[in-house]
Amino acid sequence: MGKNEKLVAIKGMNDILPPDSAMWEWFESKVRDLMGRFAYRNIRTPIVEPTALFVRGLGEVTDIVEKEMYSFEDKLNGEHLTLRPEGTAGVVRSVVENNMLYDGGKRLFYIGQMFRHERPQRGRYRQFHQVGVEALGFAGPELDAEVILLAHQLWKELGIDGVRLELNSLGQPAERKAHRDALIAYFEQHTDVMDEEAKRRMHSNPLRVLDTKNPAMQAMVNAAPQLLDFLGDASKAHLKTVQDILDANGVAWSVNPRLVRGMDYYNLTVFEFITDKLGSQGTICGGGRYDYLIEEIGGKPAPAVGWGMGIERVLELIKELNIQWQRPSIDAYAILPDASLLPQAMRVVQSLRSEGISVQMHGAATAEGMGSMKSQFKKADASGAHCALIFGGDEMQRGMVTVKQLRDGAGAQAEHAIENVAGWAQLLRA
Fold first, then answer.
1. How far apart, in whole angstroms, are the C-alpha atoms of residue 289 and residue 149?
2. What H or E segment, with its residue span, contains residue 55?
3. What is its EC number (predicted)?
4. Domains delineated in the chain
5. Rounded CA gap, 107 and 98, in Å?
């Protein structure tokens, strides 16, 4: 690459620029507010983790571990490290390492970047962002229902409709083993219709064969033994309680016996929220119970349940549905006819900001001056500001600033004393 050649971002790792970044902030504020009402507390874990965490936690023969992780060897000490491809394993590692369950269960949430070696496409990127919730140390099915209700409530508050909820149960290890043996025996009788990927996974991870997108295999997969038929009474009762709580809250659901999710750590309840508006990337939230992962990562055995939500896909859906979101507004725009007034004007602006008022400076001072008043008013109007602050020379000599309305009551204006900013600041709020 030449010395002066323009450098660009890695394909599939995108800049988030204004005004789009304001939409992200709006979404994240909605999430944080809702998490607080459900009593979930924020956790922030490193982007880079030991590779072994994901190999052990997600499963050695999962797509993520086999194909999608960004892994490398640390040049300093030879450690094998990986950019996190999902959030749950890192949260569990942190909970175990910091002995967070010593005094009972924890409800946690995270927001952050994840990384997978993908072929970039709509809603699927190499760097993407997730919101996730993890309820750790709780065994009851009411927690499965709670995390589902949390996601469902978020759809309501974002104005998203048309999202369907699919449920399944993966049972307990003994039930899964019996089903696994039956699946392998079944697949061995139908290798003639299986692609090479399915044949490779048939013995190592047969559940993932059920998740195939190959049209030629659909009829065979649809007739495969279903895990629901291998569930014992306790597993069935767990799923039934989840369904009853959802029914009591008016949340529609359907059972999808082929729903298995992509990670090995799940047991009992698994679920996905799916939209038909985003094509093949229609799953916008998914998760389930993972009662054995904490022990797998080195902690004392403890139950847990959670979900992950792709932020890019949710925002894409909001745009697709043309949902109106609350854009940030500016209270005031500062207009100066004379650059020599900048020190005094900026003292007033800083005082207003200290009172909680958002003010945008014109910011175009040059050796030739500040630009014409007409051009400044044009930019003030384009900024969306509620009003303009006019720092005229005569007014400033009298210790005053003129406030002119740009929206409600447009054109109306009044003078206010510079030394009494606190007394009139709130009149500027949009």
1. 15
2. helix 51-58
3. 6.1.1.21
4. 20-171+231-320 (3.30.930.10), 332-428 (3.40.50.800)
5. 15
- Helix (H) or strand (E) holding 42, with range, is strand 41-42
Number of H helices, E strands in the chain: 16, 16
pLDDT band at 212 (very low <50, low <70, confident <90, very high): confident
Residues with Cβ within 8 Å of residue 139, at least 6 apart in sequence: 291, 303
- Rg of the chain, C-alpha, whole Å: 28
53, β-bridge pairs: none
CA distance 137 to 291: 9
Q: Where are the beta strands (DSSP E) in 89-203?
A: 106-115, 127-136, 164-169
Q: Are strands 332-335 and 359-361 parallel, antiparallel or unpaired?
A: parallel
Token pair belonging to 399:
């210790």
The answer, yes or no, to whether residue 366 has pLDDT greater than 60, is no
Residue 285 carries which DSSP code? E
The pLDDT score that the predictor gives to residue 127 is 94
Residue 67 per-residue DSSP state: I
Place of tokens 């204004």: 18
Residue 139 pLDDT > 90, yes or no?
yes
Q: Tell which residue, 357, 366, 300, 309, has the closest CA to residue 336.
A: 366
Retrieve residue 30's tokens. 């909605």
* Pairing outcome for strands 41-42 and 106-115: parallel
Q: Which residue has the tokens 């962002």?
A: 129
| Spatial separation of the C-alpha atoms in residues 209 and 212, rounded to whole Å | 5
pLDDT at 220: 92
What's the predicted TM-score (pTM) here? 0.89
What gap in Å lies between CA 253 and CA 262, rounded to an integer? 20
Q: What is the pLDDT of residues 284-329, one digit of tens each?
A: 999 999 999 999 999 999 999 999 999 999 999 999 999 999 888 8
List, in sequence order, every residue forming a beta bridge with 288; answer none if it has no partner. Answer: 270, 306
| pLDDT tens digits, one per residue of 262-278 | 667 789 999 999 999 99
Instruction: Decide: 413 and 427 in contact? Cβ < 8 Å.
Output: no
In whole angstroms, give the CA distance from residue 359 to residue 373.
Answer: 18
